[in-house]
Every structure is written in C-alpha cells, then in structure tokens.
Amino acid sequence: MGLRPALKGAIVTEIPRETRVLDAVVSLVDSLLDDFDVVELLTELAEHCAQLLDVASAGLLLADPRHQLHLMAATSEKTHDLELFQLQADQGPCLDCYASGQPISVSDVQTEAERWPRFVVAATDAGFASVHAVPMRAAGTVLGALGLFGTGVGELNDADQLLAQTLAHIACVAILQEHAPTPETVLPRLQTALSSRVVVEQAKGFLRHSLGVSVEEAFALLRRYARVPPLI
User: What is the pLDDT of residue 1?
Assistant: First the structure.
C-alpha cells in the first residue's frame, strides 16, 4: 500500500528554538557520557552553533602548550580559510578573545578596519559582515576561542550570547572531561586533542588528493566511515 499524500494546505509546525537548543545540548552531553572522538564532537558542536545561533557559520580554535592556536573545527570551507587566515595574519576577533579571555562581539566588521585591517578585508571577501568570539576557559586557563561569523550586520542578543558560552563550556568538557580540570591536567589533554586533529587533517588531504573531492567532502567521508560500527 502506498503512502497517503499529505493533506492539501496542511500546516507544518516548526520545532520551537528552545526545543532545538535542548536537543543539541542533550545530544552533546550524551556523547560525553559515551566513548567519543574529540574532533568529531567539536565539529558537531560547531555545527550546532551555526544552526542555533543568529550566525551563518562557526569555527573553533584550540591552543597548544606554547599558546599557539590551531583550527579544530569549521562549518564551511570559507570559515576554515578565514580562521586559518587569522592565525597567519596574527589578527582577528578569535586571537583577541583568546588573549583577553573575554568575549568579543562586532556587529559590523567594517568598523574594525583600523584594528584588524587584513582580517576585515579577508572577512568581507568571504562574505561575512559581523564577527563574534567566545572564550573557552577551564581551571583559570583559556583553552581557545569559538568564532561565530554572520553574513549580515548585527549583534548577538543576550540569549545567543548565553548559548554560545554554554556550547563553549561543553567544548571544554569534551577535552577535559575525564577528571576535574587542574592546571596540571589541562595542557596534556590539549596536546592529545591537537594530535588527533593532525591525523584527521592528514587523512582529509589524502582523500582530497586521491578522490579529487573538496576538503568538505573528504571530511564528510571520514565522518561517515567513523560512524560505521565495526564488524564482529
């Protein structure tokens, strides 16, 4: 028997934002209670940021023991490239956020041309008009920064700022969740997370070259393969 066609003029009810936020948090916390891959979880977290907040995309930078930032997750290739550009140019909201340990919100990136001249040009060329950054902190240590990028001019409202900080806290827990974080345990776990990312980047590059696909497609293939249960 075939499927019954939808009723003409039926109203499709959109899931309330509060429900979607709770679903995202529960999903992330469930992952923390199970055996999880930190790079995969941070990527999922960045995707939730782009879906739930009033931004177009998100990226996550993590610091190593020498306080050098590294890209851990990005929701689009443009965001990936812009986050890397910040690191190469040594200027931008995520770097300032990491250095100060304070959130940064810029409703119109053009107003910061004097502060971040090279970054503003790169962000504008990538199609971003507003930028925000939220610090990742644990045990008095700033671990990195969550970058949020909008295609339109505008500030994050209080609810979005709170949610962004909550998701940044979950990212910290994902890295440090085995025990209560202390200054002695923070840096080794950061190094483990960064080493995992190096392996993922190498695999992405291999697939991109071997299969002739984009970086995003290569990462999607890796993630799908990682989710396949092992044969017993």
Answer: 38
Block residue for tokens 């017993």: 232
Answer for the pair 130, 106: CB distance below 8 angstroms, yes or no: yes
133's enclosing H/E stretch is strand 130-138
Task: Tell me which residue has tokens 């909550």.
Answer: 166
Token reading at 119 = 């970054």
Q: Where are the alpha helices (DSSP H) in the chain?
A: 17-32, 38-52, 77-89, 93-100, 117-125, 158-176, 183-211, 215-227
Question: Helix 38-52 vs helix 17-32: angle between axes, to the nearest 10 degrees?
Answer: 170
Q: What residues pair up with 71 in beta bridges, in sequence order?
A: 61
For 115-131, how does the pLDDT look when each residue is reduced to its tens digit (9 = 90+)? 999 999 999 999 999 99
pLDDT for position 223: 82
HEC string for 79-128: HHHHHHHHHHHCCCHHHHHHHHCCCEEECCHHHHCCCCHHHHHHHHHCCC
Q: What domains can you pick out in the chain, each with its CATH number?
A: 20-227 (3.30.450.40)
Paired with 149 in beta bridges are 57, 131
The amino acid at 51: Q
